[in-house]
Amino acid sequence: MQILIVDDxxxxxxxxxxxxxxxxxxxLTAAGGREALRIFETQPVQLALLDNRMEGMNGEExxxxxxxxxxxxxxxxxxxxxxxxxxxxxxQLGADDFIExxxxxxxxxxxxxxxxxxxxxxxxxxxxxxxxxxxDLPVALIGSSKKMQELxxxxxxxxxxxxxxxxxxxxxxxxxxxxxxxxxxxxxKDGPFVVVNCxxxxxxxxESELFGHEKGAFTGAVSRRLGRFEAAQxxxxxxxxxxxxxxxxxxxxxxxxxxxxxxxxxSEKDIDVDVRxxxxxxxxxxxxxxxxxxxxxxxxxxxxxxxxxxxxxxxxGDMVELIDFFLNKYQDRPxxxxxxxxxxxxxxxxxxxxxxxxxxxxxxVTLVRGNVIRAGDLPPEIQAGQSGxxxxxxxxxxxxxxxxxxxxxxxxxxxxxxxxxxxxxERVLRxxxxxxxxxxxx
Length: 442
Fold this sequence. Notes:
The protein has about 450 residues and is of the alpha/beta class. It has 19 helices and 16 strands. Helix 13 (about 320-330) crosses helix 15 (about 355-365) and helix 18 crosses helix 19.
């Protein structure tokens, strides 16, 4: 990072320059505001250290002109006349921090390193966004919040690798979209991107679905069928909702990840597979490991790299951008949300995350009679400002618990029969019973 030191005290300039150069930073210096602005116009400067009290042009004026020229420049104001009022003023002008003379070099270094990390995150996130635009990729990146910038920064480092990556996130946060983005900016972008929804595959068909089968391997296998791993050769496979994978299949997946080989059902021949594996889940796999519902060795094999997609309630600064994006996507005539409606939406926690917001915009665009969506047009729970996420989760958990108990009682606590009636595997039933504190009465 290149730093510009602006101070009319030569002793102070030389001291700061020497210290920061020893830390590995590239340093430019200026003895006053006008010289600083001339340097700033001709040299790439990521951070300015500005003395607040200088002859001719003070640090606040220099900062204003720098920010007008380049809003992305970062700044730390240094002064011997510190006060709360001054600190507030320079922060309002866009300074990142404020430090008093005599300068504590250790404190200054910590502040610079924090800013440097933020600058690197922004650069990496911009590189991902530029790749999407430059290569006209079929994904949309919406959000400039700190959480999203940090996530895209990680994506820029994860995508070029071949390591297995686990993507965590609540339902509706966009895990599959993120996995597709990783594929599209990776070296495998010209290969296939194959999605396997582990929650939607019947347990007895799982092995065939992933690895394929030979003709006659089982009843109904009238011809050879390639599995999803072979379909993804040279590309990327996403194991979505990987926490729902049966434990018998977890063993076989572990072998595939370790040896990079598969064998079709009904065949003893090994087939080499060249596939990048991504996995996504909204479940707490560590908790599942602790309860014996997910293999620990498989968890560590999948979790080489980890990405956590933030819920919408943690990135509300992106709300307006998302609303505008979905309006442009779905409207067939000019429609907008008024200010009160937007304010009401921001108050709501959206337990269904971005997907819930998208569906809400679709519904509003379809049903609104005029061209303006007002607060009174919103669903009752949003009008009431009910964030509701914790309450909703409690109610859903209680409803699920009651369904489990009812099914178990109906089938005399025979878990295989209860699980079948609920449309879930016995393994998932046992996990849900343990989580809900339901004890087996048989």
